[in-house]
Write a structure and sequence with these properties.
- The complex is a heterodimer of chains A (64) and B (90).
- Chain A is built from 2 helices and no strands.
- Chain A has 64 residues and is mainly α.
- In chain A, α1 crosses α2.
- Chain A starts with a helix and ends with a helix.
- With 90 residues, chain B is mainly α.
- The longest helix of chain B is centred in the middle third of the chain and has 32 residues.
- Chain B has a single domain, classed as Mitochondrial import inner membrane translocase subunit tim13 like domains (Helix Hairpins).
- Chain B contains 2 helices and no strands.
- Classes of the chains: A mainly alpha (64), B mainly alpha (90).
- Chains A and B meet through α1 and α2 of A and α1 and α2 of B.
- Chain B: Belongs to the small Tim family.
- Chain B: This is Mitochondrial import inner membrane translocase subunit.
- Chain B: Its main location: mitochondrion.
- Chain B: Heterohexamer; composed of 3 copies of TIM8 and 3 copies of TIM13, named soluble 70 kDa complex. Associates with the TIM22 complex, whose core is composed of TIM22.
- Chain B: One of its GO terms (cellular component) is mitochondrial intermembrane space chaperone complex.
C-alpha cells in the first residue's frame, strides 16, 4: 500500500508539472511535433521547478 | 483478540473475505479510472485554449486537426516531464 501511495504521488507530480510546463513552454498552436525551443523548454522545466521549490522551502524555513 | 471486526484501513461493507491482492487490484483500477478522467479534463482545457480561439457555428477542419495534434503533443510532453523527473543525470 505504501508503494501504491508513492506511485500516486509521483503520478500526481507528473500531471501537475506537465500542466504547468505546457502553459510555460507551448506558447503557440500545437504542431505535428515540438519545435526545438519548445522541446528544450519542456526538458528543463521540471528540474527548474524542483530547484525553485527547494529555494522556496529553504527561504520560508529561515524566516521562522 | 477480536477477529470479527474489519482490519484498520478497510471501510465497512468492503467485504472481509477479500484477499489483499483483490483489494489492491480494485484500488489500482479505481486510481487508473481517476487518472484517465483527470487527464481528459486537462486535455479539454488545454486544447480548447490553444485550438478554439473563436468558437464558430461548427468545428473547422483546422480546429479538428489542431485538437488531434494537441492531444498527441500533450501526451508527448507528459513523457518528457516524467523522464526528466525520474532519470538521474550525472
Amino acid at each position: 500500500m505504501h508503494e501504491e501511495q508513492q506511485r500516486v504521488m509521483m503520478n500526481e507530480a507528473v500531471a501537475k508539472l506537465t500542466s504547468v510546463c505546457w502553459d510555460k513552454c507551448v506558447t503557440s498552436v500545437p504542431g505535428s511535433k515540438f519545435s526545438s525551443s519548445e522541446y528544450s523548454c519542456l526538458t528543463h522545466c521540471a528540474k527548474r521547478y524542483a530547484d525553485m521549490s527547494m529555494i522556496i522551502i529553504k527561504s520560508t524555513q529561515s524566516k521562522k | 483478540m477480536d477477529f470479527s471486526s474489519p482490519s484498520p484501513g478497510m471501510s465497512p461493507g468492503m467485504g472481509g473475505g477479500q484477499s489483499p491482492e483483490a483489494l489492491m487490484e480494485q484500488v489500482q483500477a479505481q486510481l487508473a479510472q481517476a487518472y484517465a478522467e483527470e487527464l481528459i479534463e486537462t486535455l479539454r482545457g488545454k486544447c480548447f485554449d490553444k485550438c478554439i480561439t473563436k468558437p464558430g457555428s461548427s468545428l473547422s477542419s483546422g480546429e479538428s486537426s489542431c485538437i488531434s495534434r494537441c492531444v498527441d503533443r500533450y501526451m508527448e510532453a507528459t513523457g518528457i516531464i516524467s523522464r526528466s523527473l525520474f532519470t538521474q543525470k550525472r
